[in-house]
Write a structure and sequence with these properties.
The chain is of the alpha+beta class. It contains 5 helices and 2 strands; from the N terminus they run ααααββα.
Length: 96
């Protein structure tokens, strides 16, 4: 919400620490965990995974069935456009 509605740059560590605290996390514990090398590596791996999937917009909606991912939307879609896509995917899942 902070990113989409308020334009907060969540890639800036102090902003993210503020948001974590607002969400109920211990500020110091979160900041320490966020700064660790393994956390940075895991974050970089997640970005790489998303790029490998062809994700180019956010938010993106993926659906998973039997370990297989389906890209339903790449970027924001209003409910009127998303609902038929999701409905078709659910229908196919029911028939599988």
């Amino acid at each position: 919400r902070s990113f989409y509605e308020q334009g907060v740059d969540v890639t800036v560590a102090p902003h993210l620490v503020d948001l974590a605290e607002q969400a109920g996390f211990d500020r110091a514990v979160f900041a320490e965990a966020f700064a660790r090398a393994d956390t940075r590596a895991a974050t970089a791996a997640d970005f790489s995974w998303a790029q490998d999937l062809g994700i180019a917009g956010f938010p993106t909606l993926l659906a998973e069935r039997n370990g297989q991912l389906a890209l339903l939307t790449n970027g924001y879609q209003p409910l009127e456009r998303l609902q038929p896509l999701l409905g078709r995917w659910l229908q196919q899942a029911a028939c599988a």
